[in-house]
Amino acid sequence: MAEEHGFTVVNQHSDANIIASIGGDGTFLQAVRKTNFRDDCLYVGITKKGKAHLYCDFHSDEREKMVDAMTFEQIEVRKYPLIEVTVDQASPFHCLNEVSIRSSIIKTFVMDVLIDDLHFETFRGDGMIISTPTGSTAYNKSVAGAVVDPLLPCMQVSELASLNNNTYRTLGSPFVLSSDRKLTLRVVQDGNEHPIIGLDNEALSTRNVKTIEIKLSNKKIKTVKLKDNSFWEKVKRTFL
């Protein structure tokens, strides 16, 4: 059908100007990851009619409407920030929704939390989630994190079952960092330094992790949305 409307179908994603995923938000995240978070193309999310997804504005059973929208400029291009994650000064990873750091065993996970060079707190609990504004509606929301407008360049830090008592204390609530901040997590070496690091919907295998650095990347992906389908309309339709 794409060829019928003047589009050329290619076999390699590196040759494509438009990359479409057919499924839901999870499929969209995989498509972005498997094509290396390209910032020189447009990502399009396509799902079934009646399904609510934050990254998917188009429906597979309304193909003519989708092509017309792209042909007659009924769409807007949005740039979404990525989170950059560096583990023990190795090559960085990227994620679109969130990075989560969790204990891999049934034991309290302990990390020193630094904002830029400031020691902010010593965290004890199950772990942390650091999300982008678009990712704030996913795992972050399920642990009572705030939903953040995607036009705000920031990342949100939410706790997973933090331990708070007369001896141990954390902030105990989500907090938001601006785009120029760096979050550093120093894993306390107490026998529980093999965390599960989740990058969107994939897990990173780790051993003897000492330091995790997290910041908003300068790199952004571009996606398209219908002009009459804003982020907050999708949030209302999905959750209310």
From TrEMBL:
One of its GO terms (molecular function) is NAD+ kinase activity. This is Inorganic polyphosphate/ATP-NAD kinase. One of its GO terms (biological process) is NADP+ biosynthetic process. It comes from the Bacteria. InterPro entries: ATP-NAD_kinase_N, ATP-NAD_kinase_PpnK-typ_C, NAD/diacylglycerol_kinase_sf. Keywords: ATP-binding, Cytoplasm, Kinase, NAD, NADP, Nucleotide-binding, Transferase. The lineage of its organism: Bacteria, Bacillati, Bacillota, Bacilli, Bacillales. Coiled coil: none annotated. Gene3D superfamilies: Probable inorganic polyphosphate/atp-NAD kinase, domain 1, Probable inorganic polyphosphate/atp-NAD kinase, domain 2. It catalyses: NAD(+) + ATP = ADP + NADP(+) + H(+). Pfam families: NAD_kinase_C.
